[in-house]
Design goal:
The structure holds two protein chains of two kinds. By secondary structure, chain A is α+β, with helices and mostly antiparallel strands. Chain A contains 18 helices and 28 strands. In chain A, α4 packs across α5. Chain B is built from six helices and five strands; from the N terminus they run ββαβββααααα. Classes of the chains: A alpha+beta, B alpha+beta.
């Protein structure tokens, strides 16, 4: 395949500092004497705090409580959760106060001695109809009522998905310093301006008095999108109260027990069919377990609900989605952001519908795959080019799916092979009109006097390579060597708010702003002159404007697409499943760098496969049971099969050099391709993920 | 006082024998390339070489390493073998967030020192004690195979 200059792989901008271990992660900072904070947490899922009894604190040790925070609220979207629990605790692990000491060990020991008198209240622990609802969205396209009235057959199923833990290898951690009226917070984070917003609110400070600096960040995957606002406010409270720099680094167990995860879900799909087995309409009900506080859940649900029909065009759809509150750890952002739950449910339901009407599981699905010009689930229009037929064709050919799927039916031996096929997509950028109405991103490109050019954006490189891909855009546009372009970790005293590093938006949205700045810089280029170029977000043209009040219109400017086939072997004695090989093809527009983009595909795919298979996390009596890597199994190198993946180039007119969103797409298809392969091997229907060894045992 | 060799230098730790090796390396000797990921020996981010063997330093009591030779990334990055790994990982795309990288590099060294020409399967098994959440491993496996080829004779 011909590769354009922008696609050609380069040495990543942060390669040397990462490979040589020179990059400083937050826990690596040894530049001054820090105090260490440890949280005192609720041992009960729901209760009234009657009293807190502190041990005698030696000199140099401190307690930090809600009284140390001027406004006791963490803003994720709204200030709907306290920095420190007030009178009531709502989940096990909710932070009540901090103990701060000169060493971590002292802080840990003193925190363990804090006595809490809590009157237990009745907790609501399970996701079910009847939970308190924090958010509810619904939409309807086409005449669903009539379709169900005219249906000759109605097929209904309920699917369940579990928690997924982001499992970044670097746990959450932050440092705060309160000096000369300025609160400086450094840490492991994706979205410096989210943390800034939250700290401004809690401490009644303005932009000029809150400075957020991103340190090298050891993985995020959404886990460091919302949660750093929580830990940031807590550690800032300590610095604010004590006046000395304070470090708060989570250990793995604490991180897994109390930080946000992917929402567990329950989705019911009811489909109206005509006499020939054609789909007339779908009625979809999606419940996400929000945990104890809403946080980001509303927007996660929006995406999950919009994606409820995945890659398919369904004539009429009615969808209802709710965020149900429970007395469990609050859930939040995780790569895919609501889409993996419904993508799994829809793909399974479509395959089961095919079996129900006696048609081939793939051919049935192919009839409904979206084409350019089709309406979207929310009544928008697929206005950009869709190359799904080519992706499908390539994966079918290289995997030999059609032959294998027949060959693997009705096996009887101990080891049974299966092949699955899954199609998936991801809406690129923020849902709805948030880019235009809320984010209003600004990006800077700064030309230094020595003719080096600096990319100044709030977007963080958390391993996905955004520093490199943005610099490539600038170097290519200006036609200067890549070595003359650089991008530092964001510092809110230097970079403008170009929006968060989320939603597969950084390259597509911010990259375009940087490209536009570079075009202007080139036109005005003068050697030796210093100059700042500023660009503001301009909306892409959409066909049908999004209206959140009606939940109607184009939810995304464009979509990325993907197709997987996966071959597995199930051992019917041990119920263990081995991955044999995975084939895939993606349309992410034009990749900004082949190697970086492929790294995103492989990493996301691996997390998706694990979501569908081995990553099992449950709350028992409100407490997260799997709180370590020996109980929550993420894939190791020996668990992973070979991947045969490729890109189909489909340049997006409004993305820089044709780029679309890429980071989340590959995760969405991982779970359903796994469950489809299990279904082929065993001839049974999978209704729940993760499809663990225990689940496979049930199926046998 | 516990004496050992750290990256070729004789050092003395003032920490108690029960202290963790990782704390001595990071806090006492300021060598922050050794990372703490899970504190229980599962993730390999804190892996170091002790007399050439790959060991998770979060599980090692300082008292147990008296007289032994510890190599961390700070020492290893000065070697020719490191340069070969550097190039191979760079070309293959084996580094994303970088937190597992120091441990992964030392795991690669430990593997190639024992088996200079591993098969793909042997690489996967050899690196299975080091978790990476970003890459999905295949690019790391490619890097190791490439390094084995290009560094022929070094291991």
């Amino acid at each position: 395949m011909h590769i354009s200059r922008i696609q050609a792989p380069v040495k990543k901008k942060d390669h040397d500092e990462k490979f040589g271990a020179h990059a400083l992660f937050v826990d690596d900072l040894q530049d001054k004497v820090y105090l260490y904070a440890k949280a005192v947490r609720s041992p009960v899922p729901h209760g009234k705090i009657k009293s807190i009894e502190f041990p005698e604190l030696p000199e140099g040790c401190y307690k930090v409580t809600m009284d140390d925070v001027p406004q006791n609220g963490v803003v994720v979207i709204q200030a709907d959760q306290p920095v420190f629990a007030g009178d009531v605790v709502r989940y096990i692990g909710e932070c009540i106060c901090l103990i701060v000491a000169p060493t971590q060990r002292m802080a840990d020991e003193l925190a363990a001695e804090v006595k809490l008198d809590i009157e237990e209240l009745e907790p609501d622990l399970e996701l079910r109809k009847g939970n308190e609802i924090a958010h509810e969205y619904r939409y309807e396209t086409g005449d669903v009522e009539r379709a169900f009235a005219e249906a000759v057959d109605i097929f209904e199923e309920t699917f369940e998905t579990g928690y997924q833990e982001q499992a970044y290898i670097e746990p959450q951690g932050m440092i705060a310093e309160w000096e000369d009226g300025i609160m400086t917070v450094k840490g492991s984070l994706q979205c410096p301006y989210y943390v800034q917003t939250s700290i401004k609110h809690a401490f009644k400070l303005d932009d000029q008095h809150v400075r957020i600096i991103q340190m090298a960040t050891g993985g995020g995957f959404g886990g460091k999108e919302d949660y750093p606002s929580v830990i940031g406010c807590q550690v800032a409270a300590a610095a604010y109260a004590i006046g000395k720099p304070v470090k708060m680094i989570y250990r793995r167990q604490e991180d897994m027990e109390v930080t946000t995860k992917r929402h567990p879900s329950k989705s019911t799909y009811r489909t109206a069919l005509d006499k020939d087995g054609n789909i007339l309409a779908m009625d979809i009900d999606v419940m996400f377990n929000g945990g104890a506080y809403p946080g980001l859940s509303s927007v996660v649900l929006q995406r999950g609900l919009i994606c409820a029909t995945s890659v398919y065009t369904i004539p009429a759809v009615r969808a209802l989605g709710t965020i149900n509150l429970t007395n469990t750890v609050p859930n939040g952002a995780y790569r895919g952001f609501g889409a993996p739950q419904t993508t799994f449910a829809m793909e399974q339901h479509m395959a089961h519908l095919a079996k129900h009407v006696g048609q081939d599981v793939l051919d049935f699905r192919l009839k409904y795959v979206a084409k350019q010009g089709d309406h979207t689930s929310t009544g928008g229009k697929h206005s950009t080019k869709i190359v799904m037929p080519e992706l499908i064709d390539r994966v079918l050919k290289k995997s030999d799916y059609r032959n294998k799927v027949e060959q693997f039916k009705n096996q009887t031996g101990r080891y049974r092979r299966g092949i699955g096929f899954a199609m998936f997509s991801h809406g690129c950028g923020f849902t709805g009109s948030a880019e235009r109405d809320l984010l209003k991103s600004v990006a800077h490109l700064y030309k230094h006097a020595d003719n080096r050019v600096e990319v100044r954006v709030a977007n963080t490189d958390i391993g996905q390579g955004i520093k490199t891909t943005l610099c490539k855009i600038v170097a290519d546009t200006l036609d200067i060597p890549l070595e003359r372009v650089f991008c530092n970790n964001p510092d809110t005293f230097i970079v403008p708010d170009s929006g968060p590093t989320v939603a597969s938006r950084s390259l597509m949205i911010v990259g375009r702003l940087i490209q536009r700045a570079a075009i202007r810089m080139k036109e005005e280029w003068e050697d030796g002159v210093e100059k700042l170029y500023e660009e503001h977000f301009i909306e892409e043209p959409t066909t049908i404007a999004w209206d959140i009040t009606k939940f109607f219109g184009d939810a995304y400017p464009t979509y990325s697409w993907g197709v997987y086939a996966l071959e597995t072997i199930v051992d019917t004695v041990t119920a263990k499943t081995e991955l044999v090989k995975l084939w895939g093809a993606y349309d992410i527009g034009t990749p900004g760098d082949e190697t970086i983009a492929m790294g995103q595909m492989m990493g996301g795919l691996t997390q998706g496969l694990a979501y569908g298979s081995i990553e099992d996390m449950v709350a028992v009596d409100g407490k997260i049971k799997q709180n370590a890597f020996n109980s929550y199994n993420i894939p190791t190198s020996s668990d992973i099969c070979d991947f045969d993946l490729e890109f189909v180039n489909n340049p997006y007119e409004w993305g820089p050099y044709g780029a679309k969103g890429a980071g989340e797409l590959p995760l969405n298809g991982g779970a359903p391709v796994y469950t489809q392969s299990i279904e082929n091997a065993l001839g049974a229907d999978v209704m729940k993920i993760p499809c663990t060894v225990e689940e496979v045992m049930e199926l046998l | 006082m516990i004496r050992f060799k750290l990256n070729g230098k004789d050092v003395e730790s003032k920490m108690l024998p029960g202290a963790r090796l990782i704390d001595s390396i990071r806090e006492e000797f300021g060598q922050i390339g050794t990372k703490e990921g899970c504190s229980e020996g599962e993730c390999g981010a804190c892996a170091v070489l002790i007399d050439g063997e790959l060991v998770n330093s979060c599980l090692v009591a300082l008292g147990s390493i008296e007289g032994q030779e510890i190599v961390t990334i700070e020492g290893y990055r000065e070697t020719d073998r490191f340069k070969v790994l550097d190039k191979a990982y760079m070309k293959a795309g084996g580094v994303q967030c970088g937190i597992c990288t120091p441990g992964m590099i030392l795991a690669t060294e430990a593997l190639l020192a024992k088996n200079p020409h591993p098969s793909r399967e042997e690489v996967k098994v050899g690196l299975a004690g080091n978790l990476c959440r970003c890459t999905g491993y295949n690019m790391i496996v490619d890097a190791v195979l490439q390094a084995a080829e290009e560094g022929d004779g070094l291991w």
